[in-house]
Automatic annotation (TrEMBL):
Gene3D superfamilies found in the cross-reference section: 3.90.550.50
Pathway membership: Protein modification; protein glycosylation
Compositional bias of kind Basic and acidic residues: 67-77
Enzyme Commission designation: 2.4.1.122
Membrane-topology annotation of the record: Single-pass type II membrane protein
Name of the protein in question: Glycoprotein-N-acetylgalactosamine 3-beta-galactosyltransferase 1
């Protein structure tokens, strides 16, 4: 007390401010390093097989629901191609989750991208009737994910083999653009023994697929895995230990299931093991990180990292699920539409005019077809009239008549 008495008021105030700042910084450091991280974006996995790093993060209590299907920005949407692929390329999605993650993570998958799968299943170690989640007879824990994966695929094979053509496994912090997955698979046969995902390099000759980025098995791959591999100790690892994605890769290689190339025509990846920011912004991922050595193909950052038809991103916190949902399915740049290919109903832009909505585009195409048909009929009639006139010795007159009728038809265009 004597020391404080001998100090000026300014020094005392400075002392207490310093103590306060020190305690605050210490608290923030401790909080950031503990389970309650301030930001999820700072996390970088130390292993390609990491799981559960976002388990301490939870999303909104009430999931955002968009009800703007009839608004001006969506009224002209044409989902013909997406709906057609929904029926032709049937995808079953099963999501790896746990009892503790049902409310904090899994339900946000269901509220966003999961509803676009033909069949959506949540695999846990305990049944949940509200989500719902299937209770597999396996022990919970990160060290038992291989056992859960085998049990999940057994369930899918027994209950849903004929309900889908492709069978996708994803985590409850994976975001998937299912329409892009169907587009990628649309020219591939589910009866070929193949699986796709983000291809990693070590320990398996043909590579294996990142578990977090999600991977998809063809029907033939699933059949071989269940009937010839999963219970055969010479092909697949027994028990629950081991990294789930690596063990799946080893097992499928021995079953002659090909590890497919999922990159686009520019060599950009479709399946991504991190959030978009980590791929798009150069320098976030350390140069000595395992990621660079594990990538089967040379990994890229920046504008060349990701396909325009990207399929998945991993380590997506619950809140970001809704951000991506908004950016992918609701944000619209005014005046721009996208062509979907020559084999489908392509967007048509009138030369020199504004972009046509789907309805006006359809009317334009119908009028164009009608005009062409009318032109052909009048041209045929004119040629017939010309032949008759020629027989009557009136060649010049008939040519004039026919040319005039053809010219009038062109003006109708």
């Amino acid at each position: 007390m004597a020391v404080l008495t001998g100090m000026g008021k300014t020094h005392v105030a400075t002392l207490f401010i310093g103590i306060f700042i020190g305690i605050s910084v210490s608290f923030m450091w401790t909080y950031t390093e503990s389970s309650g991280r301030l930001f999820s974006f700072e996390y970088l996995p130390t292993s390609p097989h990491s799981h559960g790093e976002n388990d301490d993060l939870s999303g909104p209590q009430d999931s955002p629901v968009w009800d703007d299907s009839h608004s001006h920005s969506h009224s002209g949407e044409n989902k013909t191609v997406a709906n057609d692929l929904y029926n032709k390329v049937r995808v079953l999605c099963w999501i790896m989750t746990s009892p503790s993650n049902v409310a904090s993570k899994a339900r946000h998958v269901k509220a966003t991208w999961g509803k676009r799968c033909n069949i959506l299943l949540f695999m846990s170690s305990r049944r949940n009737g509200e989500l719902p989640a299937i209770g597999l007879e396996v022990e919970e824990g990160r060290d038992n994910l291989w056992a859960k994966t085998k049990a999940a695929f057994k369930y899918v094979y027994a209950k849903h083999l004929n309900d889908a053509d492709w069978f996708m496994k994803a985590d409850d912090d994976t975001f998937t653009v299912v329409e892009n997955l169907r587009h990628f698979l649309s020219d591939k046969s589910p009866m070929d023994p193949v699986f796709y995902g983000r291809r990693f390099r070590p320990m398996v000759k043909q590579g294996f697929m990142s578990g977090g980025a999600g991977y998809v098995l063809s029907k033939e791959a699933l059949i071989r895995f269940i009937t010839k591999g999963v219970d055969n100790p010479e092909i697949c690892r027994m028990g629950g230990g081991g990294a789930e994605d690596l063990e799946m890769g080893r097992c499928l290689e021995k079953l002659d299931v090909q590890a497919g190339d999922s990159r686009d025509e520019l060599g950009r990846e479709r399946f991504h093991p991190f959030i978009p920011e980590h791929h798009l912004i150069p320098g976030i991922l350390p140069k000595d990180m395992w990621y660079w050595k594990y990538s089967y193909y040379p990994a890229k950052q920046g504008k060349d990292c990701c396909s325009d038809y990207a399929i998945t991103f991993h380590y997506v916190p619950p809140n970001m699920m809704y951000v991506l949902e908004y950016f992918v399915y609701h944000l619209r740049p005014y005046g721009i539409e996208t062509a979907v290919g020559s084999s489908s109903n392509m967007y048509v832009k009138v030369e020199g005019g504004p972009a046509q909505s789907n309805r006006s585009t359809d009317r334009y195409k119908r009028r164009l077809a009608l005009g062409v048909s009318l032109q052909k009929k009048i041209q045929s009639f004119g040629e017939s009239l010309g032949k008759k006139a020629q027989d009557m010795g009136k060649v010049e007159q008939s040519k004039i008549v026919a040319d005039n009728m053809i010219e009038k038809t062109r003006l109708l265009q």
